[in-house]
Design a protein that fits this description.
Number of strands: 18
Shape: globular
Structural class: alpha/beta
Strand content: 25-35%
Order of helices and strands: EHEEHEEEHEHEEEEEHEEEEHHEEHHHHH
Radius of gyration: 21 Å
């Protein structure tokens, strides 16, 4: 059996590796001239680390996310939490990793063709033929769209639609400095996250609400003036050229992921806001779930539909929860912000949050 995988990002590369592991020939087609990831860091929670171990690609060198602390923008501690007990029960620690390092890790075991932008496909009872803009044609038994939030595969299957704008923008960077624990700083309409990424590198993100995509905002150095030095010390050590800015979008859940011998996974169909840190994690889960479903055998088209039916509820729940959590973190009303911060400091809230987190991390294939 042969698979055509469209998209050479985390979802597509993971799919290529997972399919090959269960004995399916899989080639990943990437439209860019090289496989590369532009970005900073990302959290790989226990559910994703478990998938990487299944792929025989443990994230060596990544820093565990074991302890967490949350401040308000003045530097007052709202909560402290430990994930050690959860990690022990699940068998895998959550980690932070540089995005390019994860892409390189996956690409090392995938078969990739670059410079191949999908134009359209044709399918019949025996297989699928993908046509690329450079004139190339490829024949396979099935096709997987893993080509990102602006997916060409999704456009062909479901029609043209825009991703959903979340109402805020984010800055991200990697900085050469050590850091000890996952750190959040919450303000009005803004939040900051700081994560240890390697022994000597730290990843951070910062957000602010904006009225429309692409709206002009001050630089982070101007915008966060007066915030706690817990955050400003990191920002001061970050070169301007290392800071990336992207507006935040997702894709609301839809009932159809595929048709015939074509299916989708990753940001092409279940893109989520970054508030739960589950975007890459869910891409890895879907890649492994697809491989496991196909390994069970049976009619191919039925297997693709079973995969979709299995993954839709979990990814939809995460997309909705992440969206709601983002709205909570981006609150601007002073009274609601004060109430949020008070609730987050309560022991009962912390305990329930850790319970929900453990249930989330224990899910997946």
């Amino acid at each position: 059996m042969r698979a055509i995988v469209i998209g050479g990002g985390i979802a597509g590369l993971a799919t290529g590796v997972a399919l090959r592991k269960v004995g399916i020939e899989a080639t990943v087609f990437e439209q860019a001239d090289s496989v590369r990831e532009v970005g900073a860091g990302l959290s790989l929670w226990s559910n994703a680390v478990r998938m990487l171990h299944w792929l025989e690609l443990p994230p060596s060198g990544a820093r565990p996310i074991e302890e967490g602390i949350t401040y308000d923008q003045r530097g007052r501690v709202l909560q402290r939490e430990s994930l050690r007990a959860i990690h022990q029960r699940l068998g895998f620690a959550s980690v932070c990793m540089e995005r390019p390092a994860l892409v390189d890790l996956l690409a090392s075991k995938a078969s990739v063709v670059t410079g191949a932008r999908l134009k359209f496909w044709e399918h019949d009872a025996q297989g699928v033929t993908a046509h690329f803009e450079n004139g190339r044609e490829e024949r396979g038994d099935f096709l997987v769209g893993a080509d990102g939030i602006h997916s060409r595969v999704r456009e062909i299957l479901l029609g043209v639609s825009r991703p959903r704008f979340a109402g805020y923008t984010t800055w991200r960077a990697l900085v050469d400095m050590p850091w000890e624990r996952r750190t959040l700083v919450l303000g009005r309409g803004s939040q900051v996250g700081i994560f240890p990424c390697t022994a000597t590198r730290t990843y951070w993100f910062a957000t602010t609400n904006i009225p429309v995509p692409g709206a002009r905002v001050p630089s982070p150095r101007e915008f966060f003036r007066g915030w706690t030095d817990v955050w400003l010390d990191v920002l001061r050590r970050t070169p301007d050229e290392a800071i990336l800015r992207n507006d935040v979008y997702d894709r609301p859940p839809v009932p159809s992921w595929g048709r015939g011998r074509v299916t989708m996974l990753g940001d092409s169909i279940h893109a989520t806001t970054p508030n739960l840190g589950q975007g890459a994690c869910q891409a890895l889960e879907s890649a492994v779930a697809l491989a496991l479903e196909l390994a069970r055998g049976g009619p191919l088209v039925e297997s693709l539909r079973r995969f979709e039916a299995h993954r839709r509820p979990r990814t939809a729940s995460i997309t909705r929860t992440s969206w709601r959590f983002g709205q909570l973190m981006q609150l601007e009303n002073p009274l609601l912000v004060a109430l949020r911060n008070w609730l987050m400091s309560r022991e009962l809230f912390i305990a329930r949050s850790l319970g929900v987190l453990e249930k989330l991390l224990a899910g997946g294939p």
